[in-house]
Amino acid sequence: MTRLLHALATTCSLAALLVSLPAAPAFAQPAAAELDAVVTAAFVPDQPGGAVLVVKDGKVLFRKAIGMASMELGVPLQPDTIFRLGSITKQFTAAAIMMLVEEGKVSLTDPVEKYVPGYPTQGHVITVEHLLTHTSGIQSYTDIPGWFPGRIRADMAVLDLVDAFKKEPMQFAPGTRYAYNNSAYVLLGAIIEKAAGTTYEQFLTTRIFTPLGMTRTFYGSNEPIIRGRAQGYTRDDGVVKNSQFLSMTQPYAAGSLVSTLDDLARWDAALYTDRVVKAESLARMWTPYLLKDGSSTRYGYGFQVGDMRGQQAIEHGGGIPGFSTYALRLPQEHVYVVVLCNSDNPRVAPGYLARRLAAMAIGKPFPERTAITVESSVLARYVGTYSNDARDVRRTVTVEGSRIYLQRGGRPKVEIKAASATEFFLENSLTFVRFDVSADGKDATLLYYGDGSDTPERSRRISDTAPSAAPATTGPAGQRQP
Fold first, then answer.
1. What's the rounded Cα separation, in Å, for the pair 29 and 449?
2. 3: pLDDT strictly greater than 70
3. Are 294 and 429 in a shared domain?
4. I want to staple 352 with a disulfide (CB 3.0 to 4.6 A). Which of 77, 323, 334, 478 is the partner?
5. Contact 447, 431 (CB under 8 A)
6. What is the tens place of the pLDDT at every residue in 219-241?
7. What is the C-alpha separation between 287 and 19, in angstroms, rounded?
8. Rg over CA atoms, the chain
9. pTM of this prediction?
10. Looking at the structure, do residues 324 and 396 belong to the same domain, yes or no?
11. Has keyword Signal (predicted)?
12. Tens of pLDDT, residues 242-281
């Protein structure tokens, strides 16, 4: 009974906090049973699972947890369980930077060495904005060979972590390409500490968490006892295991926070006001950065900026040993969806689940696709290597008999199913691709609609042959997009 009263009180207080939001256009909301059916199918009660929240116009449409917080102790997940957020942390870091920008303590055009003296920019000008938008060109430390699984275990002070990657060669000139970068957000954390004169953890706690009533959101250090914190897991060939250890000093401003469904809803609600940053600052955070050639990165400051079912989508996922997460908002419809999983290899990808639920919440559910058979001679027209230079992405298409596969970089290849002669989809995923091939077969374009986006990522074929591919993935479809 105590737990029930606590849950009711939490839900009511959350609704009271959010109810002042202006209403979006009315439509028939999905029944809770429809949302529950989708969520229930994604998790197994006696396995690591997840907590899910769907909010519309300040009202909680759905709030539930399924699965185990501790497999060893037999403790189930609750809607108020605390999870590692992974890279959802980045939006808090970006907001902290914009708070300092508004106070005149930081400028987006400031060079990184203003706050990290002696940082070797290798002849380039690397600005705060470059760091925020993943366009700096510096080496992401988590991509340095050998960093996993060994070096990720070591406790490191902030500047020691910076020292570990700062001498790595630049990957490209700042502002010319987009490449997701954890080192950049480590540097942003150092900038916050220098400009604010306090630690990153203290700044977020005193300036964001406490004022917004986010009482169950913390810097996720391993040592403190945090009541209600879930254990993290992984799956290896279908076998559940404890996740690998990492020192939480390393994710830092790129991925160190822990939180709950309700606290993230409080965060989302506050962004509709000026309690965190002014509307002009938020608009800039939600505007895709343009590269020097004018192409869009589809990333602002700490948020991915895209579209879904005719709506602007502001979103970000997180992946960290033991946990996978996703937070998605549709500002026009005042919808917010959070999916927090205590497995880094869940049965269903959090982003896939979040997008399905958000589409249902606005009355525009994604269509179900049915696979058909396409002649091998047609599939052969699509074979080759495709490149999107602006986002530094290469994908290869291969055919084996009657099956066609898509692969990104060195990741495992993934089979895609034909919905038509030109459109193919990933099973248990919203991602689909279309091919546009010239009549003579010489020129081809791959249009990649990641996670059900309305706007495709375009890649041109640069070779009609494909390098040897890694084995087909055996993980959950949609967990790592090809």
1. 26
2. no
3. no
4. 478
5. no
6. 999 999 999 999 999 999 889 99
7. 27
8. 22
9. 0.85
10. no
11. yes
12. 999 999 999 999 999 999 999 999 999 999 999 999 999 9
Burial of 105 (0-12, 13-18, 19+ CB in 10 A): middle
Q: What share of the chain is helix, strand, coil (3-state, %, to 5)?
A: 30, 25, 45
Burial of 45-57, coded b for 16+ CB within 10 Å and e otherwise, reads eebbbbbbbbbbb
The beta strand positions in 75-158, using DSSP E, are 75-76, 83-84
Cα distance between residue 54 and residue 52, in whole Å: 7
Beta partners for 52? 64, 339
Q: Kindly state whether residue 177 falls inside one of the protein's structural domains.
A: yes
Q: Per the structure block, which two tokens stand in for 169?
A: 């060669």
The CA-atom distances, in angstroms, between 264 and each of 91, 212, 315, 336, 432 are 11, 10, 13, 9, 30
Do 160 and 184 meet the contact criterion of CB atoms below 8 Å apart?
A: no
Contact 351, 341 (CB under 8 A): no
- 247 and 184 housed in the same domain: yes
**Beta bridge partner(s), residue 405:** 398, 415
In one-letter notation, the amino acid at residue 366 is: F
- Same domain for 199 and 174, yes or no, is yes
pLDDT score of 387 more than 50: yes
Number of domains into which the chain is organized: 2
Distances in Å between the Cα of 225 and the Cα atoms of 136, 232, 349, 383 are 37, 15, 29, 53
140 contacts 186 by C-beta, under 8 angstroms: no
Two tokens, residue 243: 């996740």
Q: Each residue of 310-342: pLDDT tens digit?
A: 999 999 999 999 999 999 999 999 999 999 999
Q: How far apart are CA 382 and CA 444, in angstroms?
A: 7
Residue given tokens 């179900």 in the structure block: 368
Bond into 149 cis (ω within 30): yes
Query: What does the block give as tokens for 106?
Result: 């930081």
User: pLDDT by residue (tens digit) across 114-172?
Assistant: 999 999 999 999 999 999 999 999 999 999 999 988 899 999 999 999 999 999 999 99
> What CATH number did the domain enclosing 158 receive?
3.40.710.10
- Nearest Cα neighbor of 429 from 361, 475, 383, 381 is 475
